[in-house]
């Protein structure tokens, strides 16, 4: 049985890389995906056997409550909002690069992670 639950936000090519990584770790089970595109979510659910799908990160965090979330969209315009939602819900976050569009947003994420006692890692 898995020791940690995980979720992936963004069901694209980068999300695939995160899924493959999680599949190599016995202690982690991916329990949910979030993506605004229903067809992308269905593909992930079918390919990886994921039981829960959500259109938004906020809904996923409220209902699935994963321990770890991979934030995989490549665009920085959504990272602050997504990472903040995950941290506030109590998850650790692994975010694709770049973390944010500017240093002020990055500082906000670091401060929030410290405040809630969670870790944030940035890919690459």
Notes on the protein architecture:
The chain has 124 residues and is an alpha/beta fold. It has five helices and six strands; from the N terminus they run βαβαβαβαβαβ. The chain has helices at 13-23, 38-48, 57-63, 79-88, 103-116; strands spanning 4-9, 28-34, 52-54, 68-71, 92-95, 120-122. It has a six-stranded parallel sheet, with helices on both faces. The chain is globular. 34% of the residues are buried. The mean pLDDT is 94.
Offer a concise description of the structure.
By secondary structure, the protein is α/β, with parallel strands linked by helices. The chain is built from 5 helices and 6 strands.
SSE pattern: EHEHEHEHEHE
The best one-word shape is globular
Q: How many β strands by DSSP?
A: 6
Unreliable residue runs: none
User: Describe the biggest sheet?
Assistant: 6 strands, parallel
| Structural class by helix and strand composition | alpha/beta
Strand order of the largest sheet: 3-2-1-4-5-6
Instruction: Report the total helices.
Output: 5
Distance between the termini: 29 Å
Strand content: 15-25%
Radius of gyration: 13 Å
């Amino acid at each position: 049985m898995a020791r940690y639950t995980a979720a992936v936000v963004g069901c694209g090519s980068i999300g695939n890389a995160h899924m493959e990584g999680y599949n190599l770790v016995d202690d982690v089970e991916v329990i949910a995906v979030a993506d605004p595109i229903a067809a992308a979510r269905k593909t992930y659910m079918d390919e990886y056997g994921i039981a829960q799908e959500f259109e938004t990160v906020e809904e996923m965090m409220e209902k699935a409550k994963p321990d770890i979330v991979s934030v995989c969209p490549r665009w920085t315009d959504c990272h602050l909002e997504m990472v903040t939602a995950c941290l506030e819900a109590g998850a650790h976050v692994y975010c694709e690069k770049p973390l944010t569009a500017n240093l002020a947003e990055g500082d906000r994420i670091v401060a929030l992670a410290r405040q809630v006692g969670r870790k944030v890692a940035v890919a690459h």
